[in-house]
């Protein structure tokens, strides 16, 4: 069993642009090495947006370098446009996996229709770090639609696991990843329990988006909380109180220095300065 290290509590909300009321459930600011290769997880909503008459809520043109942004939509609909010429709209169950690597400039807005009609927005944006050797690779864009993401059924009618990346019970996720990692969308029925097999040595974090679970027959993890486990060990046990929606993140730690500033995450201050310079001089492209 992977032992529980700590449970991080609900951090409170802040706005990203005017479209995303988020709770940062973890961040490399305070937990860089322990969460590697994962850098940050923002959970937006669930928040009711009124029909919008003016401009669409969201975040305008901005850059990224040195890592990947993974956007998982639960409710609502988002539209994205980037300097690589990619344009996508993702809705409930869909995922966008953007490898910024050497640099991408993009915008992230509520989709035209969702903004016009209003409704509930609920989504996650996860940042995944890249090893130094891949930070300056060409960018990549993967749109993973709901029907491409396989689901595995848990034993004893406990619920299911949608495999976005990695592998669970023989189901392989569609995401191409740079380092070995798993992103599982876990749904547990109330009062059920499950044991999840996880690679020995992997960083392991359980992020509860709604509901409440008991982990390893001891501690409780509630809504908007994150449980971090030891890397040693090959499984965790979870038992849900009510219906629970969670993300299970596991991955091989990268083990390199993490130096970040705003939208850039590199290995040194010098590389951050270079990133700012490259963005300002247009070397990351334009929309
Ligand atoms: Mn962005």
How is this structure best described in words?
By secondary structure, this protein is mainly beta. The protein has helices at 28-35, 112-117, 269-280, and strands spanning 4-8, 14-16, 20-27, 38-49, 58-64, 67-75, 78-82, 87-90, 95-99, 104-110, 119-129, 140-144, 151-153, 159-165, 167-168, 171-172, 181-188, 193-197, 203-210, 213-215, 219-221, 225-229, 235-240, 244-251, 259-261, 264-266. The chain is globular. Strands 1-22-19-24-17-14-13 form a seven-stranded antiparallel beta sheet, with no helix packed on it. A seven-stranded antiparallel beta sheet has the order 2-3-4-11-6-9-12. Strands 5-10-7-8 form a four-stranded antiparallel beta sheet. The chain is 9% helix and 51% strand. It starts with a strand and ends in a 7-residue tail after the last helix. The protein contains three helices and 26 strands. Residues 62, 64, 69, 106, 108 line the site of manganese (II) ion (MN).
| Sheet having the most strands | 7 strands, antiparallel
Number of helices: 3
What sequence of helices (H) and strands (E) makes up the elements? EEEHEEEEEEEHEEEEEEEEEEEEEEEEH
Annotation, overall tally of beta strands: 26
């Amino acid at each position: 069993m992977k032992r529980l290290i700590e449970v991080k509590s609900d951090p409170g909300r802040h706005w990203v642009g005017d479209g995303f009321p988020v709770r940062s459930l973890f961040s490399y600011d305070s937990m860089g090495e322990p969460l590697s290769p994962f850098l940050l997880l923002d959970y937006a909503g669930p928040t009711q947006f009124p029909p919008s008459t003016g401009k669409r809520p969201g975040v305008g043109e901005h850059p990224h370098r040195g890592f990947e942004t993974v956007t998982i939509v639960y409710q609502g609909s988002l539209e994205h446009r980037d300097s690589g010429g990619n344009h996508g709209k993702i809705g409930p169950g869909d995922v966008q996996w953007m490898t910024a690597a050497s640099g991408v400039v993009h915008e992230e807005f509520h989709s035209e229709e969702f903004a016009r009609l209003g409704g509930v927005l609920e989504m996650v944006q996860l940042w995944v770090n890249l090893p130094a050797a891949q930070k300056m690779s060409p960018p990549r864009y993967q749109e993973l639609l709901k029907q491409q993401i396989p689901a595995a059924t848990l034993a004893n009618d406990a619920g299911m696991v949608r495999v976005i990346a990695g592998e669970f019970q023989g189901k392989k996720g569609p995401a191409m990843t740079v380092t070995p990692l798993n992103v599982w969308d876990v749904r547990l029925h109330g009062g059920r329990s499950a044991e999840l097999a996880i690679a020995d040595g992997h960083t392991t974090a359980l992020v509860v988006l709604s509901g409440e679970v008991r982990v390893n027959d001891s501690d409780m993890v509630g809504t908007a909380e994150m449980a971090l486990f030891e890397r040693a060990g090959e499984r965790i046990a979870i038992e849900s109180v009510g219906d629970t929606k969670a993300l299970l993140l596991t991955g091989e730690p990268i083990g390199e220095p993490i130096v970040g500033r705003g939208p850039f995450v590199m290995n040194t201050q010098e590389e951050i300065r270079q990133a700012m310079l490259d963005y300002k001089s247009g070397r990351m492209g334009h929309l």
